[in-house]
Amino acid sequence: MSVSSSDQKPAHVALLPSAGMGHLTPFLRLAALLSVQNVQVTFITPYPTVSLSESQALSSLFASFPQITRKQLHLLPLEKLNPTISDDPFYYHFDVIRQSSHLLSPLLSSLSPPLSAFITDMSLASVVIPITEAINLPNYVLFTTSAKMMTLFLSYHITAGSGKDDLHEMDVIKSGLEMMPKSWIPPPLLEKSNNSTKSYFIENGKKMIESSGILVNTFESFEKESLRKLNHGEVIAGLPSVIPIGPLAACDFEKSKPLAWLDGQPAGSILYVSFGSRTALSRDQVRELGEGLVRSGIRFLWVVKDKKVDRQDNEELEEVIGHGLMEKVKEKGLVVKNWLNQEGILGHKAIGGFLSHCGWNSVMEAVWHGVPILAWPQHGDQKVNANVVERNGMGIWVNSWGWGGEIVVTGAEIAGRVQEIMRNESLRGQAMFIREEARKAVGVGGSSNKGLTELIGMWKKF
Ligand code: UDP
Ligand code: UDP
User: CDD domains under this entry (predicted)?
Assistant: First the structure.
């Protein structure tokens, strides 16, 4: 093919996300963004999905963007596999997708016109990169959490392989990075025995160095230091470019009808409480949280989750929080037990604060709308993300609350922190400042906009 004829063709990019809304959402948003920039997009969906919200989000994407080509990666039947055992259904699914990844080769070669680039999730990097390398296809990784978490993800295999028994403080020092306290590190990474989280970090972290580039849903001014270190060989030598392209804005199809209840509330008066798409608090903790919210005197919108996977979350709300608490809650706020469009809520003028687990999408959405965060990280990457929030001055993180399930935080303590977050004017001011920075980053000529535009330009030439 001559250079001049390929120059005239639009770029054709395929995307392959992993399991769970936290991993899927940035892929949906990137697919939409590329599509409106005249990139031909093929979206490969691992089938079936774990949660109902994933399959609904996918249907909405394809209904709104008929120009996006849908392909399914039919996962091998679970009983035929022997994935590394994980009790987390989403982690289990990562393995199922990985073990089905050989089915990708025939799928890729069937695509027309040929692909200019492939973008996959960090949890699939080690199995997908060899497949794309074999056909000379540039492969990018979309890292779905913070750049700071990426510094750990990419250097953990060195620490884990150093033979030191005591990972008391992660040995990322060699990479020029500040020490990360042990308490922030996802606990499975500190275990001596092998587990699925460790192999996920080690295998993918090692392989990502061979990718063509790493896209990350963050922006320059929010994570300047981590991005600088990643791009200057201070975390690991030989890394391809790390390109911040966020915050990836929500698509119109994600936005459901806003809650009428919010319209009746004074500006900035409501605390929004949610722990994301896959975190269920213990019943004891749910009830203390409810008592705390009521006691704070602050009005609130609280989304309760009782099971990790939405398809199994069948208990009545009143059963979960109890009849007495339900009565008290009704006087002070609104409590629901179903999927709400979070992006729409955070953008509502009534919202003045967000009690969040600090899943990275939630952080980016709060940033986008300038809402201060009361951080209560529960699992995985969330403490590292909470630290990013705190260091940027847009939230409070109470370290002593620990990981989800470590202790039961009392209602009295929660009430105090809720009051603090809702009354702190300087946090609110800083959150509004960061909101402007985020909007500049994705606006024309902004850092994230430039990064993505350059990539698209390069793909068109491929
Ligand atoms: N989300 C939502 N409504 C809900 C729960 C979650 O819209 O009731 C969205 C939220 O806006 C975010 C994603 O689901 O985009 C969750 O991703 P995040 O990284 O915040 O956390 P995770 O669910 O992966 O723990
Ligand atoms: N984890 C969990 N629930 C979550 C997120 C993570 O139980 O909502 C667990 C997960 O099973 C794994 C560990 O936390 O054992 C590490 O998660 P990671 O940092 O890789 O974050 P993720 O990729 O899930 O966003």
Answer: GT1_Gtf-like (cd03784)
